[in-house]
Amino acid sequence: MSTTLCGGHFINGQWMTSEGKPFQSINPQTGEKLPTVFHGANPEQIAQACESAQIAFSKTRQLPPTQIAQLLEQIATEIEAAGDELLQMASHESGLPVQPRLMGERARTCGQLRLFAALVKEGDWVDARIDRPDPARTPLPKPDVRSALEAIGPVVVFDASNFPLAFGACGGDTASALAAGNPVIIKGHTAHPGTNELVTQAVQKALEKCNLPASFFQLLQGSGSTVGSALVIDPRIKAVGFTGSLSGGRALFDLAAKRPDPIPVYAEMGSLNPLVILPKAIENKTTQIAEGLAGALTLGAGQFCTRPGLIFAANCAATDSLITQIAQKLAGQKFCMLTPGIRDHFNSIVEQFATINSVKVHVAPEKSGAAGTGAFLLETDVKTFLTSPALQEEAFGPSGLIVRFDSIHDLSSLFTLVKGTLTATIHHDAADDTVEVAAAFSQAAQIAGRVISNGYPTGVEVCHAMVHGGPYPATSHSGFTSVGTGAIRRFARPVCYQNLPDTLLPETLRDLNPRKIFRLVDGQYTQNHS
């Protein structure tokens, strides 16, 4: 198959173009438009994709787990086989370097696909539960009741701007939705449509080799306000995965809630990710923390959803030195952001911070190039932060706002003001007051999905225990994660079967337990037959 870009959509196994609103991706390093012209999907194409996904689901909802696992593994293989062309396209559209960033992203993308394949093969994720009957129970006989998680139906995934591969067309949302057995429609991000087309070509090959319906995975290009909105309100769509801004995620959530049949929108949105530095940690690890924090603030030009942009630093003798060292490391650095629009929005927010009384600016760069900027470092006090709602906005980019606090009471007030967040980090030392340390961690756990000790939140490990979520506005539903194998539960629902003959039950609930998965049988976990 040729990898020449067609600038179109992948619908029911066919590549097709449209006459919708044209757009081109932009190389943020140069400001130049890339040559391929894409067009937004039209209403007929959107409806066709949704109908095809629904038909595919009717055929695949009982797919053997081995086939789903094979598909996930084959997609990973085909993405790797796409080679340098895919990496170069992602770099041109995002401004991110091929080495090490995009090579690492590709490895993460393929790694999480294979991780979900292993999860599906193993099978315990379905949470099978069996309560056996007791016909002799009085006053009424006890029925045979069995339940397990099953695929929810066609899922729309909005890929993210800041990770064109790892959170792109075949990122974690897609991997987890496919793993649960759902057809997926990708609403491609307009910042990297070429990357999405190349990834979709890889998935097309995988579908063909695994002999699965072509409409099990589809791609629609276009804006979120038109194509994305139309997908969310289509009655055939049963769930949505989204990674992006608070405004974008909330808009989709509200649309889905207004449907005659509301559906879940699993949106991962903005996050302040507070990082607390207690007194003895500042005094005893000043240089170490300054170096680590400067790196975390600027990793990926600060365009990580887990960037620790809000720093609560204890006011002690070494705090001035800590701030000076961070400022020295940030001064003069230049970054290329993902798009000129993201850069301009970032600069406008931080410039607004700088106009607030009692906010001190330590580092303030000027814009440069198509999407270039530098780092910002600002400082304020507890009172100013508590009384300035503008400072509680996320500045998505290479910046940090340091808030000095004097007491555990101050820190408690600051924590109370922070809304739901993906992460919260505490830097502490053995010499710090143990009561204060315990109080800080207790408060952190109330607002964050992931709590970190003496580290930095920017590395999100893809593993079974990871929680990449948190209370609103970090996500639209704090009960789930978008990273790690727990993400699969977003795209499944429990189905209960009562008094069905064994031959009519799903394989996971049959008496002989042919897959040898762990099941909760009469309150006891076992792999034995029931």
List low-pLDDT spans: none
The mean pLDDT is 95
What is the subunit organization of this protein? single chain
Q: How does CATH name the architecture of the largest domain?
A: 3-Layer(aba) Sandwich
The CATH homologous superfamily of the largest domain corresponds to Aldehyde Dehydrogenase, Chain A, domain 1
CATH-defined fold name of the largest domain: Aldehyde Dehydrogenase, Chain A, domain 1
Whole-number radius of gyration? Answer: 25 Å
Number of strands: 23
Strand content of the residues, in percent?
15-25%
Structural class: alpha/beta
- Percent helix range: 25-40%
Outline the fold blueprint:
Blueprint lengths: L8 E3 L2 E3 L5 E2 L14 E2 L3 H18 L4 H17 L1 H12 L3 H25 L6 E3 L13 E7 L3 E4 L13 H8 L4 E4 L5 H17 L7 E4 L3 H10 L5 E5 L2 H13 L6 E4 L6 E3 L1 H6 L1 H13 L11 E5 L4 H12 L3 E3 L3 H15 L5 E4 L8 E3 L1 E6 H6 L11 E7 L2 H10 L3 E7 L6 H14 E6 L38 E7 L20 E3 L2 E3 L4
Parallel strand pairs: 5-22, 7-8, 7-10, 8-9, 10-11, 12-13, 12-19, 13-18, 17-18, 19-20
Antiparallel strand pairs: 1-2, 3-4, 5-6, 6-21, 14-16, 15-17, 22-23
Quick structural summary:
With 530 residues, the protein is an alpha/beta fold. The protein is built from 15 helices and 23 strands. The chain has a seven-stranded mixed beta sheet, with helices on both faces. Strands 21-6-5-22-23 form a five-stranded mixed beta sheet, with no helix packed on it. A five-stranded parallel beta sheet has the order 9-8-7-10-11, sandwiched between helices.
Keywords:
single chain, 530 residues, alpha/beta, Aldehyde Dehydrogenase, Chain A, domain 1, Aldehyde Dehydrogenase, Chain A, domain 2, 2 domains, 7-stranded mixed β-sheet, 5-stranded mixed β-sheet, 23 strands, 18% strand
